[in-house]
Amino acid sequence: MGSQWDTHSSEFPDGPSQRADVMQESSAMTTRSESRQSLGSLASDEIVFHPKTFKGHSSPKKDPPTPEPKGDDWEALEVGKENVNLEKATRRRSRTKKEVLKMGGSEVTTASKPARRKHAKKLSSGNAPYSYSCTLNESHQSSVYGVMFNPYLPCDEEYYMATCGSNQVNVYRLTDDGKKPEHVVQLIDSNKEECFYALTWAIDEIIRTFVLVVGGAKGIIRVIDPMAKKTISTLRGHGESVNEIRTSPMNSMIVASASKDRTARVWNVALQNCLAIYGGSEGHLDEVISLDFHHTQDFLLTASMDHTIRVWDLRPETEVGKRIQESVDPSKHESFATLPSIENHFSLAVAKDVHTNYVDCARFYGNFIISKSCENQIVLWRFGGFDQPVSGQGTLLRTETYVLHTAWVEVPKSSIWFIKFDIDPDNKYLAVGNEEGTVKLVDLHSIKPEAKKPDYALSCPETGRVCVRQTAFSPDGKVLVSSGEGGVIVRYDRK
């Protein structure tokens, strides 16, 4: 069957013409190709429009051509309806399931439903720059694994935020007064076995709108237009679950995905094309949990359960770099329907001695790298200069493991995997959660070589010991949001 969206009382900030102006400021727009290739294996969605829609959509815009539905349907859910019976998504591996993880000879016990505290703990420590504002609970009551603000809209007294967890994707509007987020859109996959782990915002420059790119347990990546309340396309290729998706800072239609199938893939979401596959016999030996683009888009960072972190080459002179540049050229769009993906088995550099456990989050910090492992610590470190070969005898075909450890940060109670951090737009604060429902803030401008503890701790009196899976800063850094077990989302505002 087709799929449906239910929209709600909230309105979107910009009409089509205003939205085009916003996107021109954030990314160069391209025109629609006259013939857009339709892939028979892609699933599309039939949409039912309701009278309450986003502002600027009194009349629906013309939809791009889409293939016929082929399973993977969506179901509608009315926000606020109390008697909806939802089947909870299957809990997977050690993300939520109670089990003993054997890692490097040690054992770590995790619990899916930690006991709540009898007494509310202190909201913040010291003179924390953020303070608790409100709490939101999603209806599925499962883990909210992904949360991200839309970076392509101006922060004019309001923000738009998307979350994913269980088989749901939700969009909220937040105002700057610290009030509870307003539910705007909810989308539910009809496959009760689906569980979304990752999402990112991107821009489809062919239809000239921003989109949500989401993926999870089934390994299928969906490209969603939240304004038209429909799935534009599905990106198929991963053989296992998708753990993280990131958008290129240089080309907003280019995204990368990390998967349990031990590979990372680079996609053009507008062309529905997989440009490159990173992995193989010389790649990661276990599932890839995290990845990130360098701010120049010249390098891709991947982190894995095999305890290693790899850097892959995307520079313009490489085959992949050329393919990426061609994919954003409108004059060459037609040729991409038949082009095979480029396979790259050899990373530019690999770090094997930074962590001794699962590496579940890694980000570029300028030419440095910040990585987190399931060993209660975050490390700031670097290879040699990115414009030169790595130190020692490493080459593109024989990678080097030598790294320079710069600083350590202790993050207690974060030994289970899939706890991810975020860095604010000013590159000053790093926010990371833990198993006890606390968000730790690290001042990166005052970090020192010796091991240190986080500078501040933020907590919520209403949630107790609920594991925090993800944190996200608003584009202007004024709002910090955390998400985690039990469908809990907590908002903190800058003082």
Describe this structure in words.
The chain has 495 residues and is mainly beta. The protein has one domain: Methylamine Dehydrogenase, Chain H. It is built from 3 helices and 33 strands. It has helices at 16-26, 93-96, 319-327, and strands at 6-7, 74-75, 99-103, 106-110, 130-137, 144-149, 158-165, 168-175, 182-189, 196-204, 209-216, 221-225, 230-235, 242-247, 254-259, 264-268, 273-278, 288-293, 299-304, 309-313, 342-344, 349-351, 359-365, 368-373, 377-382, 404-410, 422-423, 429-433, 439-443, 456-458, 468-473, 479-484, 488-494. The strands form 8 sheets. Strands 1, 2, 6, 7, 8 and 9 form a 6-stranded antiparallel sheet that branches. Strand 19 and strand 20 form a beta hairpin. The longest helix is centred in the N-terminal third of the chain and has 11 residues, at 16-26. It is globular and about 55 Å long. The N and C termini lie far apart (49 Å). It holds the Pfam family WD40. Residues 60-89 have a biased composition (Basic and acidic residues). Belongs to the WD repeat ESC family. Residues 24-41 have a biased composition (Polar residues).
